[in-house]
Design brief:
- Helix content is 34%, strand content 22%.
- By secondary structure, it is of the alpha+beta class.
- The chain has 2 domains: 240 residues, Bira Bifunctional Protein, Domain 2 (BirA Bifunctional Protein, domain 2, 2-Layer Sandwich); 89 residues, 3-Layer(aba) Sandwich (Rossmann fold), CATH 3.40.50.800.
- A hairpin with a 7-residue loop joins strand 14 and strand 15.
- The chain is elongated.
- It binds adenosine monophosphate.
């Protein structure tokens, strides 16, 4: 029997992986442009990090974690999300000042796999730690929105809510609990269980969506400070030209959010998986993890879902494919080195094949143009051919770069 990748995991192979490379490199450059440094944290943590950081009442912790014991009997968990590990790292490093960091990488959740819902999936994300200013929330939301738009996700909308803070949330939770208690008979088993631990979770339940459509919203219970914070976030978004809609029942699947919660919804996916990403503010998280109070806000975007939402046709993977002839193999190799040194994406076959086979390879590799190093080389020239319309010219070898750039 041949071996296969585990259920719910994917091999991301060329040519489709070109979309992924573009998504990841666009992420790197945009995060850098907004002033986010790179952070890399372990793919597994003590299970406690997620139990406390994501929240015992969440579906992620209750049902979806890949938890195992190592050889010394320590309980470890493959990260189901990025934020708890990043905040753990910030605390461990001394939790000084402000830290703006971006990451990308695999996350693991034991889910029922389907398109856009995988057991190993990829997120790009960022965290802005050490400030509770509304500017930070708006900046994070703006960057996610600009990224999704730049990568071609159609019809991105931002849904925005505020979940309140320690001051006003308890009153809201009690009002919500009372409202839900009156409707116990209509709730599913899972919701009845989460109702005890965290009634807000019930708003997240897909099965009970119809029942909770008119449930009280945290937005109606905000204290003055939370109201001001929300209106500041809104006015920053307005001035940045980021469109959003208030979504009073948006609570998000993780327990740690305070105040701002948001989600990005695209139109290209099935109804069940319309969210391509989301995030929010988590001012209480650092303390849950045993650290000092550190306010923070962040987001995570699902690259698998983004890749499903954007057109698969991407830019060619190669600028030029160098075709060699028997006599001029060494020259063709040297030309490849020169082109690569100038940053031109170039390749050729490593062995001697027919011209036909080499042109076929150029096509398959998605090259824009082919350079043939043949007899013209004696007079310092090459044949340069565009693959889109088949037109060709004979040019001096020193003109190749200019010619390629003109395409
Ligand atoms: P969350 O951490 O649950 O807020 O997820 C943030 C984003 O990650 C979601 O909007 C999805 O795009 C993506 N995501 C979450 N879980 C999965 C999964 N199992 N498979 C694929 N993408 C996921």
């Amino acid at each position: 029997m041949s071996l296969r990748a585990p259920k719910g995991t994917d091999d991301i192979l060329p040519p489709h992986s070109r979309v992924w490379r573009r998504l990841l490199s666009t992420w790197e450059s945009m995060a850098e442009a907004y002033g986010y440094d790179l952070i890399m944290v372990p793919f597994f943590e003590s299970t406690e990090v997620f139990n406390r950081g994501v929240g015992e009442s969440t579906e992620v912790v209750q049902k979806q974690m890949y938890t195992f014991e190592d050889k010394k009997g320590r309980s470890l968990t493959l990260r189901p999300e990025g934020t708890a590990g990043v905040v753990r790292a910030f605390i461990q490093a001394g939790a000084q000042g402000v830290m703006k960091v971006a990451y990308s990488g695999a996350m693991f959740r034991y889910e029922q796999p389907q398109a856009g819902r995988r057991r190993q999936f990829y997120q790009v994300g960022l965290e802005y730690l050490g400030t509770d200013a509304a500017d930070a929330d708006a900046e994070v939301i703006e960057l996610g929105y600009r990224y999704l738009t730049a990568t071609g996700v159609p019809d991105v909308t931002v849904q925005l809510n505020s979940l309140g803070d320690d001051e006003c949330r308890p009153t809201y939770i009690e009002a919500l609990r009372a409202w839900l208690e009156e409707r116990r008979g209509l709730l599913c088993q899972d919701s009845l269980r989460t109702l005890e631990m965290n009634p807000m979770r019930v708003l997240d339940c897909k099965v009970c969506a119809g029942v909770v459509a008119d449930a009280p919203s945290p937005i109606d219970y905000l204290c003055e400070a939370c109201q001001t914070h929300l209106s500041e976030v809104r006015s920053r978004l307005d001035s940045a030209g980021v469109p959003y809609r208030l979504a009073p029942r948006l609570v998000r699947g993780l327990d740690y959010y305070t105040r701002t919660a948001f989600e990005y919804v695209g139109s290209a996916l099935d109804a069940a998986q319309t969210a391509v990403g989301g995030g929010g503010r988590y001012d209480g998280l650092a303390e849950l993890l045993g650290g000092p109070p550190v306010p923070g806000v962040g987001l995570a975007l699902g690259v698998d879902r983004i890749a499903l939402s954007v057109p698969d046709a991407v830019d060619p993977a190669l600028d030029v494919f160098v075709v060699n002839t028997d006599r001029y193999r060494a020259e063709a190799r040297a030309l490849l080195s020169t082109l690569r040194a100038t940053g031109i994406r170039s390749d050729g076959l490593p062995d001697q094949r027919s011209l036909k086979a080499q042109f076929k390879a150029a096509d398959r590799r998605g090259a824009v143009a082919v350079i043939v190093v043949g007899d013209e080389w004696e007079s310092g020239q090459v044949v340069a051919k565009r693959l889109d319309d088949g037109s060709q010219v004979v040019i001096g070898s020193e003109e190749i770069v200019t010619w390629l750039k003109s395409l």
